[in-house]
Amino acid sequence: MGIKSNIFLGIVVILMMASCQHTSNREHYITSGQAWLDTDSSLINAHGGGVLYYKGLYYWYGEYKGDSTYRLEQVDTWECWRADARGVSCYSSPDLSNWKFEGIVLKPVKEDHSSDLHPSQVMERPKVIYNEKTGKFVLWMHVDSPDYGKGMAGVAVADRPTGPFRYLGSLKPNGFDCRDQTLFKDTDGKAYHICSTDWNKSLMVSLLSDDYTKPSGQYKRILVGQKREAPAVFKRNGTYYLLTSGCTGWDPNEASYATADSLMGEWRIQGNPCKGPKADKTFDAQSTFVLKIEGQDRYIAMFDRWNKQDLIHSSYIWLPIDFDGGEMTIEWKDRWNLNLGNTK
Ligand code: GAL
């Protein structure tokens, strides 16, 4: 009995330890506004970003900012603080907490001053979606001249989520200017580009071609005259949500969200979803993306807290979205447990 029961006890202890280990692996905390480090202990440099889930990993793409920030003095109507655009970075994670640097997946073009990808130009708010039909990863971003006068979208494709992305060029969606932008892939496989247009006075939703690399020609201007930017779109229980900021450059302002039954339908303005200290200034931050936790009815609102005079040290604010009572709310939390094991 002695040996058998010892073996049995040993197995029980090992199983218990394994399950404890498993539980503690699920304890991942998000501490917004702090310096976030990657798995090599380097500062995460992925601003204005978005996240793609693909085959068990989350991929976070963002603006890889140069280390020094300068102000473009020739722009005198607003504070045009700039950092060199050093390409699009990518970090991968199985748990939204430990992020491995996968490198610069869309590289800057240092030799050609006239390229959209030259570090002196604007490359902002990159977003990536996967096209099942073509097997390609498609990246859209805002490309602009250093003074933001050009207002275009840049498109690139890759065979793998970690790139390298091949730049296809820039375009004005449906012939209109385009600045802050995002992508949304619907459950039926159709994909949409959403951007601020008409010098940020309105937003435009464009249905993309089947390969996601260009507008299909079907589009709608929404929130016309509302002056919104930093769009982030997601869908929950058949309702589409659009989170935006106002237009005050790098300075924070009040967020607002709108809902619709179809992306090209009527959008109903719902007001500011933020609650808690500095809710009227989006916790000193600006929206960039809403991340759906894979397989769960849980959503994370991603914001950038811009440090306009030191852009590379802008920090990330990630907060859970609450839908209790039918309203969407985003409450400030100093630190919260991602609790990936929790399915609600
Ligand atoms: C913000 C925009 C940012 C960046 C900045 C430049 O309004 O959301 O992505 O373009 O202006 O001032």
CATH class: Mainly Beta
* Count of extended strands: 23
Low-confidence stretches at least 5 residues in length (pLDDT < 50)?
13-24
Q: How widely separated are the two ends?
A: 45 Å
Elements, N to C (H/E): HEEEEEEEEEEEEEEEEEEEEEEE
Fourth-tier CATH superfamily name: Glycosyl hydrolase domain, family 43
Strand proportion, as a percent range, falls in over 45%
CATH topology grouping: Tachylectin-2, Chain A
Round the Cα radius of gyration to an integer and report it: 21 Å
Please give a structural write-up.
This protein is mostly beta strands and 344 residues long. It has one domain: Glycosyl hydrolase domain, family 43 (Tachylectin-2, Chain A, 5 Propeller). 7% of the residues lie in helices and 46% in strands. The chain has one helix and 23 strands. The strands form six sheets. The protein has a five-stranded mixed sheet, with no helix packed on it. Strand 10 (181-185) and strand 11 form a beta hairpin. The radius of gyration is 21 Å and the shape is globular. The protein starts with a helix and ends in a 7-residue tail after the last strand. 40% of the residues are buried. Residues 13-24 have low confidence and may be disordered. The structure holds beta-D-galactopyranose (GAL). Residues 48, 124-125, 180, 229-230, 247, 249-250, 286 line the site of beta-D-galactopyranose. Beta-D-galactopyranose (GAL) binds next to strand 6 and strand 14.
